[in-house]
Design brief:
This protein is mostly helical. It contains 3 helices and no strands. It is elongated, with a radius of gyration of 22 Å.
């Protein structure tokens, strides 16, 4: 390959701006596989939001179905670790986010 203007270039060039790439493949036969990309807006205090979520779960514990209480307890344990596992925390938060749509399936006290 040469560096002339008509050469084939499978590289990626970015000039200015900001990009977040979850998965990227470039060139013949390239293949990228992965999960979703998540980001938060600048200035969002994520630890404070998670603390607020855990406090809310604790405050409404008796209103949650048992499976949701178990997930909340596991989240609390994970967050108490010196170094929480980001993938595990993400999975637990995603499970909790699905509960409200399924609460009607469990009998309420």
């Amino acid at each position: 390959m040469t560096t002339s203007d008509n050469s084939i270039n499978f590289g990626v060039q970015q000039s200015g701006g900001v990009s977040q790439v979850g998965n990227q493949a470039v060139g013949p036969g390239a293949h990228a596989v992965g999960g979703g990309l998540w980001a938060t807006a600048p200035g969002v205090d994520l630890p404070a939001l998670i603390t607020q979520l855990v406090q809310t779960l604790d405050r409404h514990r008796d209103e949650l179905p048992e499976p949701a209480r178990a997930v909340a307890a596991e989240l609390r344990v994970q967050l108490a670790r010196p170094v929480p596992e980001p993938a595990r925390v993400t999975a637990l938060l995603q499970r909790l986010a699905r509960w409200p749509r399924r609460w009607h399936r469990w009998p309420r006290p």
